[in-house]
Amino acid sequence: MFSVIRCPLSVVGSLSLSAKLNREQRTENREQRTENREQRTENREQRTENRQRRTENPRRMTSNSSLLIHRDISWLSFNYRVLQEAKDPAVPLFERIKFLAIYSSNLDEFFKVRMANHRNLLRVGKKTKRELDISPKLIVREIQLIVNKQQEEFGKIFEKQIIPELKKHNIHILRRLDLNEEQRQYVENYFKEHMLPYVQPVLLVKNKIRPFLNNGALYLSILMKAKDTPTGPREYAIVKIPSDHLPRFIALPSPPNRHDIIILDDIVRHSVSWMFPGYHIIDTFSIKLTRDAELYIDDEFSGDLIQKIKESLSRRHVGPASRFVYDRDMPVQLLAFLKDSFGLDKFDILREGRYHNNFDFFRFPDFGMHHLKNPPMPPLPYAPLEEVTDFFGAIRKSDHLIHVPYQSYEPVVRFFEETVRDPKVTHIKIVLYRAARKSRIIQALMDAAKAGKQVSVFIEVKARFDEEANLEWGEKLERAGVSVHYSFPGVKVHAKLALVRRVEGRQARIYTYLSTGNFHEDTARVYSDFGLFTADPRLVNEVVRVFSYLETVQPPVQPFQHLLVGQFNLRSELERLIDFEITQAQAGRKAEIILKVNSLQDEQLIDKLYAASKAGVHIKMVVRGICCLIPGLKNVSERIHAVSIVDRYLEHARIFIFHHGGEDKIYLSSADWMVRNLNYRVETAFPIYDKRIKQEILDFMQIQLSDNVKARLLDKTLNNSYYKNGGDLPIRSQLETYFYIKRKNELEAAAPALPKPKGS
After folding, report:
1. Residue 442, SS3?
2. Rounded to whole angstroms, how far apart are CA atoms 562 and 564?
């Protein structure tokens, strides 16, 4: 016989609540055990990959075994050179902060493009993987290890060097616990008045709510518990940090002669409890998701390519994940929950510091402390084209080389602005790859079209991350009456060319400008590039043929004899020029090659350089970024010396110099020595015929190769050790170049006016 015991409702409710809490606790325990198992599995996989890495170093895992460095490992080594500038106490403080921003911006683009490519390779079938030169899993893991190490150093540089240096100058970056009462009130008011419309708090519920993370946006992940069930399970939420609408660095009320700053993220941290009033906030951790930014166009050869690009651009912001970064102090349980919530795997995840999107340091306030920046180096005038009334007449008399940013970009802008008011000008043609947001050059092209000139513009709309801007420029130019030609399938047009046709008396004459850099007034202030103005028929006639090809897609009937043009003779001529040096060396004659490029990755040309070194050719290189070639290998590259220069200006010019039996064949180019440039782009390398200009370029390269302040030695170790050439006198090539041009200007101004001979 059973007796029934009736409990008061309050007791039943209490028992029911207790049972519910027990169930929730058991569920949380099960989830914890599952997460622990996943962590142990991941640790085992990590140990397996570490063992594999010890036997298969990715620096050697290419088709040429020990003779090449993987391009992405080399690129990460380049980006570390940028980080070296941030930790160099000899660099002015605000410039060091800028280099932190550059490093972060570079890495962001790397993950949007290169890492996304590796992630895609992880998903291909086993058969395809076997055909690859390197295991995608191995290279992804190696990249993660290198980036993790660099990010740790980034954090130490910021925390241990930059912040203390800022304090010495009475600039203080405060966190929420550092605020005084006045500052707390300011922060709370700032949040309510400026931030409230933009924050997006979202409660995360496992298997139910999977919010979409915007590409590159900042979020706080929140660990919390409900106040009414203090013994209940932990809950999670995320809040967007509105750095896309508001400044990242907020000035706070400060005492006289002191500058207090709070980072926007910490204002959100301070305000989280208002957004979740029913919860006790345990902790917050920053996160960010980077998405694949590549435009995937299945078939460029059929249909409307421009429309396909527009459609792909509309999908870019929802691309698959390529990197999920999180605060390294985040608990394992929260990381596992986020990983599951956003459908990530271990190859997507990278730990960083408390703050992400550090490219926002570009906008770090300077409080007028200009002494903490590089001393100004105003662009020097180029008098032969800036102080003449007959601009085109000056070009007709002799070739002119300008070197930005050391020299003013005004002659390039004037080249186009002259066409608007010059009644003799009938036609203008130009190739645009990237342009300034407020481009005087494009404005001049539109004004010239409105003035009745025939203006033709080729716009490369596949220029990565400038696709949308280039499409907009194309539409504006078309509305102004300009004839616009867009990208064609299969290749990118990367050549930097322009020409102007004038009717002079009874004949037409063409003037051209060829460059190593874009028609971009903004980057001309920070990118080191060369540009050549010439009316030399040997070059002009071939530039006309390049434009004819771009406008008609019909290959020119006559071969190029002077220009080296991608898709036609660029690769073959470079190989022929190297072969000539090999022949000279084998005959016991002087043989030398001097190269300056942004990237050296093409295996065929690297093999040629190795062959040249073995034959006795002396090779000197300045390579800013990727260098897959390994200098100094015994019996392979002992005669190859390579350095990389990272300084206040970005080294962007490409220069190819071949001794050629004493003739010194010199080419300036838009092309790097990469497969993409040589096989899949329209590029130009243009010869220098003027003896004065030849000597100027040789002098410049001698200055670069003498750098013992900012040059890093490129070798198999990837240590980026600073190059010391044995000289007692410090030589910083960018400063030396500036003063070389300044002295040259002074000498020319002091010399009597004599006609300048033109070389041939």
Report:
1. helix
2. 7
pLDDT tops 70 at residue 283: yes
Sheet holding 564-565, edge to edge: 564-565, 684-687, 665-669, 654-658, 592-597, 618-623, 640-645, 711-713
Q: In angstroms, how far is CA 284 from the centroid of its own chain?
A: 31
Q: How many CB atoms lie within 10 A of CB 125?
A: 7
Judging by DSSP bridges, how do beta strands 425-432 and 454-459 pair with one another? parallel
Supply φ then ψ for residue 43, to 5 degrees: -65, -40
Query: In the chain, what is the greatest distance between 2 CA atoms, to the nearest angstrom?
Result: 127
The domains spanning 171-366 and 383-552 adopt the same CATH topology: no
Q: Please give the single-letter amino acid code of residue 410.
A: E
Class for domain 564-750, per CATH? alpha beta
Which of 15-19, 355-359, 454-458 is modeled with the greatest confidence? 454-458
Q: How confident is the model at residue 272 (pLDDT cuts 50, 70, 90)?
A: very high
Please name the amino acid found at residue 323: R
> How many Å apart are CA 250 and CA 123, to the nearest integer?
43
Instruction: Answer whether the bond into residue 58 is a cis peptide, omega within 30°.
Output: no
pLDDT tens-digit series, residues 76-117: 999 999 999 999 999 999 999 999 999 999 999 998 888 888
Full DSSP string of 42-65:
HHHHHHHHHHHHHHS-TTT-STTG
* Nearest residue to 433 via CA among 388, 465, 401: 465
Query: Token pair for residue 197?
Result: 């419309």
Say how many CA atoms lie within 13 Å of 279 toward its Cβ: 21
pLDDT at position 35: 54
Q: What tens digit of pLDDT does each residue of 181-221 get?
A: 999 999 999 999 999 989 889 998 876 667 788 888 999 99
- Span of 46-50, 550-554, 745-749 with lowest mean pLDDT: 46-50
Which CATH superfamily includes the segment(s) 171-366? Polyphosphate kinase middle domain (3.30.1840.10)
Catalytic residue among 356, 494, 520, 659: 494
- CATH numeric code, 55-169: 1.20.58.310
Q: What is the pLDDT of residues 468-526, one digit of tens each?
A: 899 999 999 999 999 999 998 889 999 999 999 999 999 999 999 999 999 999 999 99
> Is residue 494 among the annotated active site residues?
yes
Of residues 310, 311, 309, 289, the one with CA closest to residue 300: 309
pLDDT digits (tens, 9 = 90+) for 389-405: 999 999 999 999 999 99
Residue 545 DSSP symbol? H
Fold type of domain 383-552: Endonuclease; Chain A (3.30.870)
The DSSP code for 436 is: -
- Angle of helix 410-421 relative to helix 440-450, nearest 10 degrees, comes to 10
Alpha-carbon torsion (646, 732, 641, 570), positive or negative: positive
Length of the chain: 760
pLDDT at 480: 97
Q: Quick one: angle between helices 93-110 and 71-87, nearest 10?
A: 160
Q: What are the phi and psi torsion angles at 398 (to 5°)?
A: -160, 160
For the chain, which residues make up each domain, given as ranges?
55-169, 171-366, 383-552, 564-750
Phi, psi for residue 513 in degrees, rounded to 5: -125, 125
Rounded to an integer, what distance in angstroms lies between the CA atom of residue 498 and that of residue 511?
8
Q: What residues contact 39, with CB distance under 8 A and at least 6 apart?
A: 332, 336
Tokens of 387: 């102080």
Q: How confident is the model at residue 307 (pLDDT cuts 50, 70, 90)?
A: confident
What CA–CA distances, in Å, run from 212 to 291, 495, 689?
Answer: 12, 39, 58
Per residue, what are the HEC states of 597-647? ECCECCHHHHHHHHHHHHHCCEEEEEECCCECECCCCCCCCCCEEEEEECC
Tell me the two tokens of residue 164. Answer: 């203390």
Mean pLDDT for the chain overall: 88
Distances (CA, A) of 587 to 6, 227, 500, 615: 111, 87, 45, 10
CA distance 457 to 444: 12
